[in-house]
Amino acid sequence: MAPDDLVLVTNGSMTDASSLGSHTSAPPPRPHRSDAWLLWHRLARGRDDFGDPDAFDKHVKESRWESFTVTAKDPAFLKALEDFSGRETGKGGLMTFTDSNWLLTIVANRQPVYRDQPEDVAVWWGYGLFPGHAGNHTPKPMTMCSGREILEEILHHLPFDETLATRVLETSTVVPCLMPYITSQFLARRRDDRPKVVPEGSVNLAFIGQFAEVPDDVVFTVEYSVRTAWTAVAQLLKLDKRPPEVYKGHHDPHVLAAALETMHRR
Ligand SMILES: Cc1cc2nc3c(=O)[nH]c(=O)nc-3n(C[C@H](O)[C@H](O)[C@H](O)COP(=O)(O)OP(=O)(O)OC[C@H]3O[C@@H](n4cnc5c(N)ncnc54)[C@H](O)[C@@H]3O)c2cc1C
Fold it and tell me: By its UniProt entry, which InterPro entries does this protein fall under (predicted)?
């Protein structure tokens, strides 16, 4: 490091040690090394102002979930989902199967999702929050399932007839992804387990990303990470332009009224 250099560290990562499976195989077990966490552990050793990575990377059974991406050569699935939900693709919300042992959710975004996506190809995705449980239809945990087996479980939860289900299975490719730390930000922690973006007295080191402390802001968002980076740069370079105040929706009467209405919706 040169004396005038600044170091911005992304400490920890929600996607570290993720592993990809395939349509025919389950994701392999996570690697023993988790580089993003290792870096934070090394930096925090012997210091009490750099947070405590142990609070976030030692509870994989509570912090993991599994996502999957589906590439479909036939629009039949999204069409059937539109008919079932009464919502045009991209205009409905996330759909959670509340009876699912894996607590499956599927997400059909507006097509095309990717710039070069061919017109006759559809892409949708989803995730299971309890991938360690046996499925309702599949007698094994989601973590041990291939992409095709995950799609079979999804189809089991939907009221589609057998002909359609077979067609969907034969024209889709499903790639599962196991993410051991995806919700580690939400684990129980102490106030100082996340380091301040700019630790007390630091002139050239800052922490950025999902595991740096931003009072009042909400993790699992791009905005949160951007705010840490903006704060770091503004503070270390002594710039006037600071990030805007965090919007506090829970202080807004309109938001509270809408929340109350939603709570009583049937
Ligand atoms: C499935 C999923 C759905 C999501 N949905 C949403 C959503 O709808 N809305 C939303 O706002 N957010 C969403 N998020 C969260 C959002 O993607 C993250 O909060 C955001 O990407 C974090 O940005 P980041 O720059 O802090 O970290 P990252 O995007 O993880 O970038 C950190 C980078 O640092 C690299 N790195 C880590 N350690 C090292 C090292 N030691 N040396 C060199 N490089 C290293 C990593 O490889 C990575 O490229 C979602 C995330 C996932 C996984």
Answer: FAD/NAD-bd_sf, Oleate_hydratase
Q: Is 220 in the pocket of ligand 1 (CB under 6 A)?
A: yes
List, for the chain, all residue ranges whose pLDDT scores fall below the cut of 50.
Answer: none
Distance 220 CA to ligand 1 centre (A): 9
Indicate if ligand 1 lies below 6 Å from the C-beta of 202: no
pLDDT for residue 41? 96
How many Cβ atoms from other residues are within 10 Å of residue 132's Cβ? 16
Q: Is 106 helix (H, G, I), strand (E, B) or coil?
A: strand
**Which residue puts its alpha carbon closest to atom 45 of ligand 1?**
36
Domains of the chain: 7-60+184-253 (3.50.50.60), 65-179 (3.30.9.80)
- Per-residue pLDDT at 103: 98
In the prediction, which pLDDT does 250 show? 85
* Cα 173 off chain centre by: 21
**Which residues, including other chains, have CB under 8 Å from residue 243's CB and lie 6 or more apart?**
226, 227, 230, 231, 234
